[in-house]
Design a protein that fits this description.
17 strands; 6-stranded parallel β-sheet
């Protein structure tokens, strides 16, 4: 009999975003690894897709000393190629990258068995469903092989599947080797995100939504099916916030067993002795680029405001961000200030602007703005882009006489974008304020990251992070707390825009001492969300899953 509180000997954590920087789940896994290893003392192995089959993945350092006998055996017995090494992140965890292409010829058989065993409907699959499912199955088969090669029933093993893309494998693994405890985390329900993204009122009529019906209406049947069935079949089902737990109960008809809130690793936040110089360098770069773009000469007294994240126009509140700037433009408290608002959201980039590159390279000061001074990079879809269209319709043309300029930075800020050539984090520290007025946000890493870099931040109570802030403070967060939480609903668009405008005005009218205190408060609040505080929820989930197996023995 296992001890119910027993820590797993092995934890396998599978995700499409292992060694694959795509979105928020990458941040979850890459920042948790060191703490998870230190706290559990388990052998933690992350499993991701081998998307660079030529061996060029810059995030993986292959290590031939890791499980070479099994690596050869799994290839010879199952034709499964697994690259093994260390993920180049804090903690340097072991990584298996699996080649899932050989499973495509088995696709129909896999889907047929998934229907027979788990009632997963793959008939309506399209887009990335096949790719994700083949990876999911390959990841599970790798763990099945590893278990049979090295381990046995005396070993306590947990398989943690992240998001619907790995659900199919978790169910198959549970079927093949029921001695492995399975955990499934949905970081956002596919159907909830789809309802919100299709401009339907998710919250006003929440109790009236039925997940299966909406999946049919929105052509999301296969993704919803695998997500729902995984939630019902695993030993422990988790999600990242109370707001998403409510969503799971309504749309997946399964209440999560544990809430695994997303923590943060602050090792890359500059120390206090380096913070000032890093902030100054970021501000200099931001102002150099934007002044060259707009033909202005705004100085360090410029108030720099930013937003970022994925390009989900409504869900991420990009529309409300722009509307709040329109409200601010009409507010007398904005007069006399230079306000620069940056929208750091990757779009369909064509190329960095050569005319802007030339001005930056030659360090040419000029009073003449470049044509179309609202964007730093050219897009393939300039005429159809929703951000640029909304800026144009509201009259944000970045004329020199304007107090508020809004600049769209539509590239992934990885340090090689051709204009800034600095990472998102290296530029984030230069902001005076960050606004993330999300409509649909299961957790919300971007506001947490901003707070960690001591940037006073605005989020909403439709974001998991915003609700967490409120729970910590015992009330709605205010700017003096470092993070202000604005109330959002389906029907209070204008009120929310005005509340955000008022928060910015509060910063504008604050003296240097109050602004410094806001920055300190933001950093202090973010400290409470470090993984060293939140990893206990993962430990709880693993104990819960293992105990389910114990109870069945």
């Amino acid at each position: 009999m296992r001890n119910k509180a027993q820590t797993p000997d092995y934890i396998f954590s599978a995700s499409w975003e292992v060694c694959n920087k795509v979105g928020g789940i990458y941040t979850v896994l890459s920042t948790q690894a060191r703490t998870l290893q230190e706290k559990t003392k388990s052998t933690v192995i992350y499993i991701g897709p081998d998307l660079d089959r030529d061996g060029s993945n810059p995030l993986l350092e292959e290590d031939p000393s890791l499980f070479p006998a099994w690596q050869n055996a799994v290839w010879e017995s199952e034709g499964l190629a697994v690259r093994i090494g260390r993920w180049k992140i804090p903690g340097s965890p072991i990584v298996f990258l699996v080649d899932f292409l050989p499973y495509y010829p088995m696709k129909n058989w896999i889907y047929g068995r998934a229907w027979e065993l788990f009632h997963v409907d793959s008939l309506h699959a399209y887009g990335d469903y096949d790719e994700a499912s083949m990876f999911s199955y390959a990841a599970a088969m790798a763990v099945r092989s590893f278990y049979r090669f090295y381990l046995n029933e005396k070993s306590t093993v947990v398989y943690h599947a992240h998001e619907w893309m790995t659900g199919l494998g978790a169910m198959f693994l549970k079927h093949y080797i029921p001695q492995i405890a399975t955990v499934f985390t949905t970081h956002a329900t596919s159907i909830g995100r789809s309802i919100a993204g299709n401009n339907k009122p998710l919250y006003d009529y929440f109790e009236g939504y039925h997940g299966d019906q909406m999946a049919w209406e929105l052509n999301m049947e296969s993704k919803h099916s695998v997500e729902k069935q995984t939630a019902h079949h695993v030993d422990c089902f988790t999600t990242v916030s109370e707001i998403t737990a409510r969503e799971c109960t309504q749309l997946l008809e399964r209440t999560p067993d544990v809430i695994t809130e997303n923590g943060f690793e602050n090792s890359f936040v500059p120390s206090l002795d380096k913070f000032g110089s890093a902030r100054a360098a970021a501000r200099k770069k931001i102002l150099t680029v934007t002044n060259r773009l707009m033909g202005t000469s705004w100085g360090d007294d410029t108030v720099i405001i930013g937003t970022g994240g994925r390009y989900e126009f409504r869900n991420k509140g990009l529309d409300l961000f722009i509307e709040s700037m329109r409200c601010l433009r009409d507010d007398p408290r904005s007069k006399g200030h230079h306000i620069l608002a940056l929208i750091n959201v990757p779009g369909w980039v064509s190329m960095p602007r050569e005319d802007l590159q030339e001005r930056i390279h030659r360090n040419r000061r000029t009073a003449t703005p470049l044509p179309f001074p609202q964007t730093t990079h050219w897009l393939h879809n300039m005429e159809e882009d929703r951000i640029l269209n909304m800026l144009g319709s509201l009259g944000f043309r970045n004329d020199k006489k304007d107090d508020i300029h809004i600049v769209f930075v539509p590239c992934y800020l990885d340090g090689n974008d051709g204009i800034f050539n600095m990472s998102y984090y290296d530029l984030l520290i230069g902001q005076d304020m960050a606004l993330f007025p999300s409509y649909y946000e299961p957790w919300g890493y971007t506001p947490l990251e901003s707070a960690a870099f001591r940037v006073p931040t605005v989020t909403t109570d439709l974001a998991g992070f915003g609700l967490w802030v409120n729970s910590v403070k015992g009330r709605y967060g205010e700017l003096a707390d470092g993070v202000k939480v604005v109330h959002r609903s389906d029907g209070n668009w204008q009120d929310a825009a005005c509340a955000i405008k008022d928060a910015v005005a509060e910063l504008l009218t604050a003296d240097a001492g109050k602004r410094a205190e806001m920055r300190r408060a933001a950093g202090s609040l973010a400290e409470k969300a470090l993984w060293k505080h939140f990893i206990v929820h993962y430990e709880e989930a693993y104990r819960f899953a293992v105990s389910k197996l114990t109870d069945k023995q």
